[in-house]
Amino acid sequence: MAESILLTTARVSTFNGEFLLTGASGFFFKRDDKLFFVTSRHVVIDEPTKHFPTHIAIELHTDSVNLTGSTQLVVQLYQDAKSEWRQGSDSGGEIDVAAIEIKPGTLPASAVLACFTPEHLQTALGTVEVGSHLLIVGFPLGFHDTMHHLPVVRHAVIASSFGTRFQGQGIFLTDGRTHRGTSGACVVMRDDSLGPALPWRLLGVHSARMDMGGRDLVLDESLGLNSAWYADILMTLTAPRAAMPAQAVSAPATRPAG
Fold first, then answer.
1. Residues 12, 151: contact at Cβ < 8 Å?
2. Which residues pair with 209 in a beta bridge?
3. Domain coordinates of the chain in residue numbers?
4. Which residue from 171, 40, 182 is spatially nearest to 99, judged by alpha carbons?
5. How much is the pTM?
6. pLDDT tens digits, the chain, 258 residues: what are they?
7. Is 175 exposed, middle or buried (0-12, 13-18, 19+ CB in 10 A)?
8. What's the CA gap between 42 and 166, in Å, rounded?
9. Domain 4-243 carries which CATH code?
C-alpha cells in the first residue's frame, strides 16, 4: 500500500463540455462529516486567461492494495448558474484557493483516499521556522506514476517568514522546483505527533511560481520561488454554509471551448 500522503492527493482535469482544458493537482480535506476537494481557484475559473471549465474530473483509487485500479469522479462546477466551489477573500484581495464539497452519495463506494482534517492545520505560526523542510505533492506537467495513479513529491523549504503575510497577501514563499500542473498541491511538513495514519502538517496550498517582472530573461535566471496560500483558509471555506462568508460566482455568460 502506498504512503498515506500520496493518497491525499489526486489528479484533476478540467473540461468545457467534452473538451479537455487543463490538468492540475488537488487534495482531500474532511471536516466533521463533510468531504471537500481542495485545489487552486484558478483551476476552476481564471478570468484573465478566459479559463471557464464547466466541470472537473478527479482520479480516484479503487483498491488499497492493487493501486492500478482507478475511476473518475466528475464534479459539475455550476448549478442553477451559481458556482459549486467555495472561495474567499481578505484584506489583500481574492485568495487563490477553492474548496468543492463532494456531495454524499457521489463518491464511489470503492474509492480509496486519505484526508487531511482540521487537526492537520498549523495553528501555532511561530513554531515554523524559515528554512523548514517541506514536501509539495502533486502532478507537475501532469507527470505521475501512470500505472499506479500516484503523484510525485518535490522537496522545498520555507523561503519567507512563516506567519508574515508576504507583500500583504495571505501567502508564504517556498523555494523548490515546480511546474505547471502543480497548482492546488498540498504543501506539508512532517509531524509525527499527528500519529502514524497521516503524520503530515498541512501548511499551505501551492498556487504558482513567482518571478520578478523586471528580470532580464537572458542574463537572469528565474528566482525558483513559489507562492503558497496559508491552509487555515480551509476553516473558512469548509464552515457550515450559514456561517461561511465565502463568495458565490455566477456562471460566465460565455465559456469558449478548447
1. no
2. 226
3. 4-243
4. 40
5. 0.91
6. 789 999 999 999 999 999 999 999 999 999 999 999 999 999 999 999 999 999 999 999 999 899 999 999 999 999 988 999 999 988 778 899 999 999 989 998 899 999 999 999 998 878 899 999 999 999 999 999 999 999 999 999 999 999 999 998 999 999 999 999 999 999 999 999 999 999 999 999 999 987 656 666 666 667 789 999 999 999 999 998 765 555 567 666 544 433
7. middle
8. 20
9. 2.40.10.120
